[in-house]
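Quick start: what a row looks like.
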Amino acid sequence: MPKSVFSSPVPKSEPFGTPSPNWGYAVASGVLGWVLDAFDFFVVIFLIDTLAEHFREPKSAIVWTITASLAMRPVGALIFGTIADRIGRRKPLMLVVIYFSTITVLSGFAPNYLAFLILRALYGIGMGGYWGIGASLAIESAPVDNRGFFSGLIQGGYPFGYLLAALAALVVIPTMGWRAMFFVGTIPALITVFLTSRAPESEAWKQHRLPSIRSLFTVLFQNLKGFAYLLLVMSVMTFLAHGTQDLYPDFLKTTHHLSREIVSYVAVFYNVGAILGAMFFGSISQKIGRRRGIIIALALSFVSIPLWAFGASLPALVCGSFLMQTGVQGAFGVMPAHLNELSPDAIRGLFPGFVYQLGVLVGSPAVAIEYALRDRLGYQWALTTFQSVVILSLVLIFVLGPERHSRNFV
């Protein structure tokens, strides 16, 4: 039975493996699927006011549908990740894309708030199921010496999905209505399924496949120490990501009195920074190490807080939000490689996705906490206080944590 990854010595480098034939399809499906997943999630962010008015509920009720999606993600990671470690990556990946895309379309037809809440919770299962399988298939298939770059490319799909949601809010809502926001992802979903069908099955999975579901969970329990550390990592990383993203459009509208159109343009701009940050810090982590790359990205986010929260003009807010998301998604850009390198070989479909999404569950109240702090401290100080504590905590966690930079999977 495989030993714990965390009990092994941490090498500076291991021999580079040979990428799978047609590995580009695996990476492309991982990137595009995560773009689509993020788009379907962030649609709600730009519809908080609209949905509250439509369902005749307070905005806080719509915020709780966001929390419901985040909270259900571990269920999807557990279900689909286990299937991926038993039968391979490709078929579960196609299934989960079809599932969450269908739920998203149904969300646009929700007749009342309760139905919408249930559908967004069900959507969270699909969202949680995708990342672990998509990232493991792509990272296992791609060239090892460029793993950091592809890690950033995959994770950059998340802010790119956010960016597309912002653009859709500008174009789709005025011309087709808010319900159409839930329908426009169907074509990218079909493309993702096609790309996945052309991708090779993971050679790492073939070599390390275990004979039963029971054996998968035996390996998981053997790695509980490492799992606990990574759970802490992903919980606090969730506070960072969703705490800086989800309420920021509402913050700009209510505190700085910007119009929905201006807010959408700002979101487009800061998500360009997020995409560049994910790719840049993912790439440099290949040279300077995963933890060091993450810590530098976190430092950039920390120094951007005054402009991000207290910018006195639109250019200052744009600059602050650009730098903030460059750092936030820069740190996340390293995570697909870092989590997969720290995961046991036999359960790489389950382990990184489950710990990622369980961390999302623990961190899912971030938005609600910040919204509650707003009433006590004001929006600006609520965001500042919360994110300062989060960033400094993450720096300490990564300084003390392990790393297995560029380990070979086969």
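That is the whole record. The two ends are 16 Å apart (CA to CA). DSSP finds 18 helices and no strands in the chain.
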